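Lecture 7 notes: from sequence to structure.
We start with the chain below.
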Amino acid sequence: MKSATEYDRTAIKIADLCFKNKKIMFLDKEYFDSWMRSMAQRLDRIEKLCDPSSKQIQTFVMDGEKMLDNYEVCQMLNISKRTLQRYRSSGDLPYQMNQHKTYYKESDILLFIERNFDKFRNIKKK
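Predicted structure tokens for the same chain:
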């Protein structure tokens, strides 16, 4: 019967034959499992940071009215950034700039939705 060291030597020879010049590292199962758990936790944290739907909304209030940024308005209206730019350029959607960032009054957005609701509904039916 072979000893444990003979089995180890045989395993190393087989690994050398299979992988030629590549080195193989044997890990303890508990160490590997703990390492994989820590990697999974780190990836979960990264995923949460990158997820745009989990964006922490910092409410900006100007003159007692809630202001929404481009991202929030696009989400609310389900439109692209380019479409939002078109509404700004045409004057359909009033906006304000604060420190090089575009904001929209919540009341203006709601008024815009009311004025254009029928137009949006007719587009969707086609």
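Points to note: The radius of gyration is 29 Å. The mean pLDDT is 78.
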